[in-house]
Amino acid sequence: MPRLSSPRSGCPIANTLEIVGDRWSLVILRDMVNGKRRYSDFLASPEGITTNVLADRLAMLERQGIIASEPYQRRPQRFEYGLTEKGWGLLPVLQEICRWGNRFIDGTWVAPDAFMRRKPGVSDEER
Amino acid sequence: MPRLSSPRSGCPIANTLEIVGDRWSLVILRDMVNGKRRYSDFLASPEGITTNVLADRLAMLERQGIIASEPYQRRPQRFEYGLTEKGWGLLPVLQEICRWGNRFIDGTWVAPDAFMRRKPGVSDEER
C-alpha cells in the first residue's frame, strides 16, 4: 500500500486523516457504498460538490488505492468508480460517523438500517 | 445541540464532517482520550500542530460542545480541556479510523490495546 511521502507521525489516526481528513472524501465514499458509480451521480448528491473538488478527490482516492475506476464509454471516455477492499475497509468508520451524527446533531436524517448493518462487499445494485 | 447554520444536507455523515472533517480535530481528540489536557501537551504531539491551528480547533470544538475547558491558572489565565459526552461519543470513530490505518497504511504504530478497548469515560490520568 502506498505510504505518504512525508507522514506527520506513525499514528494510524493522523495517517488516515492525511488521506480522508477533509469534508468531502468520506461523502464520496458514502455514495459509493450506496451504489453510485458515475461522476454525474456524485455531482447530483445534495451536498453539491463542485466538479473540480470531485475530480481532485476521485484522483486522490484512486491513487491511494481506496477506489478503482474502469471505462464504461468511449468518445468521450467515461469512467465508473467503485470501492476496493481498502475502500470498503472504511465502511465501519462511515457507520460510526453516522451513528454519532444521528445522536448528536439535531435534525440529521436517520441512516437506513441497510446502511448501518451493511458489510463490506458489492453494492446494492450488483446484488 | 447546536446545528450548523447552513448544513450541506441532512446527512449525518456530511454534517459530522462539517465539524470534524479536517486533518487536525480528531488528532486533538485522540490526545484528549489519551489524557492530554493542556495547550502545551497538544503542541508537543509529534504531528507538530501549529499554535494558530490548535487555537482555532479548540475554540471550534468547544463551540460545538465536543470539548469543555476550565481555568487551572490565573495571571496569565490558562485552561485545561477535556471531552464532553458528545466528545467521548467520537471514540468509536477514532477506534475505527485506527483499525483502518493499522490495516491499510504500512508502518503505522499499532494502537495500544488500552486505546482500542477504551470505553467513553474519564481519562487514564483520572483513574
Characterize the structure shown.
Two copies of one chain form a homodimer. Chain A has about 130 residues and is mainly α. Chain A has a single domain, classed as Arc Repressor Mutant, subunit A (Orthogonal Bundle). Helices cover about 45% and strands about 10% of the residues of chain A. Chain A contains seven helices and two strands, in the order ααααββααα. Chain A has a two-stranded antiparallel sheet. In chain A, β1 and β2 form a beta hairpin. The longest helix of chain A is centred in the C-terminal third of the chain and has 14 residues, at about 90-105. Chain A starts with 11 loop residues before the first helix and ends in a 10-residue tail after the last helix. In chain A, about 35% of the residues are buried. Chains A and B meet through α1, α2 and α6 of A and α1, α2 and α6 of B.
